[in-house]
Amino acid sequence: MIDKFVPSLEAALAGITDGASIMVGGFGAIGQPHRLVDALSGRGLRNLTLIANNAGGDFGGLPALIAEGAVSKVICSYPRAPTKTAFDRLYAAGEIELELVPQGTLAERIRAAGAGVPAFFTPTGADTALAEGKETRIIDHRLCVLESALSADFALIEAWSADRWGNLTYRATGRNFNPIMATAATITIAQIHQRAELGALDPEHIVTPGLYVQRLFLTDDTDESPTDQTA
């Protein structure tokens, strides 16, 4: 019998070791798998590559993970926060690497990896510092930049409900980066709010098929927290 639900955070995060590349879903606090990210902190991990929309703020465990020196490189579209974070300090000291990617390009690089597209041309970033060292081409009279697909060893995502096969639904804006990240990692680990019986999910509402999901962790959160998605 296929049942991808795991009994603990430890089981959910098994195999994440030094040097791993990790995608973390969410747009700010919305849709971020906080329980999974929080559980990574304090494990003494090193040399992680973090792929996310942002480099952490006043929410969730990303700032703690960065502050403890677990992350050596961040690939994101929005590294700053309203207040100073550990990332600001480490970046200013040259102790953490940043690859800044326009948000639409970041999303498309991840989507491309999931779709098996190795690279694509985009006009975004052309004639800017973001295009330095990259191949360019004139397409339809516009200068375009060649961007490579972006995959990871692990994707930590949040979904709203799942059945034991790993079919996922999302709630409102909590969908954001989560579905494309689910397709672009070797191992996708989903934090879930509701467990559904097999066959209970409307097929028209399933966004991520279970084929892309390896592990499910059912959170015991009972409130409609910032991960829930109305913003």
Summarize the structure in words:
Mean pLDDT is 92; it is low at 223-228. The protein has a single domain (19-119, 148-220), classed as Glutaconate Coenzyme A-transferase. The termini are far apart. The strands form two sheets. Strands 1, 2, 3, 4, 8, 9, 10 and 11 form an eight-stranded mixed β-sheet that branches. A three-stranded antiparallel β-sheet has the order 5-7-6. The protein is globular and about 50 Å long. It is of the alpha/beta class. The longest helix has 13 residues, at 103-115. The chain is built from six helices and eleven strands.
Average of per-residue pLDDT values? 92
| Global Rg | 18 Å
Fourth CATH level, the homologous superfamily: Glutaconate Coenzyme A-transferase
List the domain count as a whole number.
1
For the sheet with most strands, the description reads: 8 strands, mixed
**SSE arrangement, N to C:** HEHEHEHEHEEEEEHEE
Shape: globular
The stretches of 5 or more residues where confidence is low (pLDDT under 50) are 223-228
Specify the CATH class: Alpha Beta
Percent range of helical residues: 10-25%
Q: What's the total helix number?
A: 6
Q: Approximately what portion of the residues adopt beta-strand conformation?
A: 25-35%
Give the end-to-end Cα distance, rounded to a whole number of Å: 38 Å
CATH topology: Glutaconate Coenzyme A-transferase
- The secondary-structure class comes to alpha/beta
CATH architecture: 3-Layer(aba) Sandwich
| Beta strand count | 11
